Amino acid sequence: xxxxxxxxxxxxxxxxxxxxxxxxxxxxxxxxxxxxxxxxxxxxxxxxxxxxxxxxxxxxxxxxxxxxxxxxxxxxxxxxxxxxxxxxx
Length: 89
Description:
- This protein is an all-alpha fold.
- Helix content is 94%, strand content 0%.
- The chain contains one helix and no strands.
């Protein structure tokens, strides 16, 4: 049984629609994979940063305490100087 032109045309349209659906599905799948890779990479970077901060935390904490004490003394001196200037006026 020979196909009519209308049958061939309908089959071609159906095939084109299927190809279009399949292409869209592939693009979506690819985009989802890329997004997951990006998300996982960022999570790994954050975890590495946290580990680095935790390892250096003890040493840095000691340095920060000393630095904060020095900064506090410096600011207290500046405050006292400014206050004394304000009192002279």
